[in-house]
Write a structure and sequence with these properties.
348 residues, 2 domains, 15 strands, binds adenosine-5'-diphosphate, binds magnesium ion, eight-stranded mixed beta sheet, alpha+beta, DNA damage
Amino acid sequence: RPAFVRTPLHELPTAVAERIAAGEVIERPVSVVKELLENALDAGAQDIRIEIRGGGLRLIRVSDDGYGIPASELDAVCVRHTTSKIVSFEDLEHLATLGFRGEALASIATVAEVTIQSRVRGSGDEDPAYWITWRGGQLQERGRRARPEGTTVTVTDLFYNVPARLSYTRAARTENGHIVQLVRRYALGYAGVRFSLALDEHMAVQTSGSGNLATALTEIYHLALNEMVQEIQASDGQHYVLRGYLGNRVLAQSSRQYINLFVNGRWVQSRILQDALERGYRSLLPKGKHPLLVLSLEVPAHEVDVNVHPAKTEVHLLQETVIAEALTRAIKGVLERSPALPEAVQFP
Ligand code: ADP
Ligand code: MG
């Protein structure tokens, strides 16, 4: 480590502070895809198309048919802490959106080139679509160009000015793998939305947006899963409503990445909840195997704190113990009734 020479206490120049903050939100290409997907979902999109080239370093493009961005607001969407989702800190107690920090687009625009093209839903013929381009945290260009209602965000040259991040980024195949996992997850969490993911022109994920979770499971894993998954529903009428599907023993996987848990529509990583649901499977799965499942947990908005980590994948639940125990119990209950099947199926 180089020798440290203390400087007098001083405020970091904005550009430096922003590039540091960007690193917390945008760790690798999949983080960009996640933020753009969440924005599309927050905009009420019914159809989301994702295009990836070169593992996301060459191009990430997310197109939606959501409510769009008014032309008067387009210049500001890449400004840090600019959001249309909350007004006060108290709004976090009844959050209805996935985003709330107003940080994602600003972060992406700091470490890449971003073009945002949008047309507001219900805008007339005289109100065309507009676009702006940001690069390295600077607004570069803007213009008008026709397009259907909705928003397209195109990100190129990711990490061009962050050499350390660029060298940390793995081969396109690895980054693509993370992106496929993410899109599958959201397509399961939002079975009513049509998703498509093209990796270098190859269609990797495609769902119909039928609203039926069992259909989405089949579309995503390309298997007739119906007899291998068990529906689960539970609620205490107060702290939680639990819904979803549990893959049985036959679908046991060697990694935890097939555990899809959503809390109020947000895909979350929670050690405590994950352990609770794996406990529900205990004795049913061989050692070292993990379940395939998709669970959506609805809890009162004021009983969940999502403001824990920049990536917003960690949450704190007020009734964590109650919910964890309920999860274990509900899963056990369902699995005890499920039929046994012969062969094991492994996904790539
Ligand atoms: P946040 O989602 O926390 O508000 P972002 O930086 O992700 O912050 O986005 C900033 C703002 O840009 C959003 O609040 C929203 O108003 C607008 N926006 C971004 N993406 C879209 C989209 N796909 N459709 C409509 N509005 C969008
Ligand atoms: Mg956002």
